[in-house]
Design a protein that fits this description.
Layout (H helix, E strand, L loop, with lengths): L4 E5 L3 H12 L4 E5 L2 H11 L3 E4 L8 H10 L8 E5 L6 H8 L3 E4 L4 H11 L4
Amino acid sequence: MSDKTILYVEDNEFNRKIVRQLLAQTRYRLREAPDGESGVRAAQEELPDLILMDVQLPKMSGLDATRQLRADPRTARVPIIIVTSYALSGDEQKARDAGATAYIAKPYSPRDLLSKIREIVPEA
């Protein structure tokens, strides 16, 4: 069985590096997108097994990108984990209303993130 692909939509290079290093020790393949628009495009082209989505992104917010992906039949069922430092009261509900499968607030434990990824999309 082929490895599972994870798309990480995040504008912060440091955050992308952390996830890159985290997933390097796994069988997951990582694809990255630096903004909401390219994230939606990459998801539609790649059809990943899971999307990690930041909320505050250039060009299109992560919530708008999530809504757009949910509206597209090709990506409507792809699990999306919202990963955000913008964690105020009610934000998790906004993420779920937009169609998020799960919600993780930054700063997070990389081990907890990997555990959540494996829970939603087990390694091949």
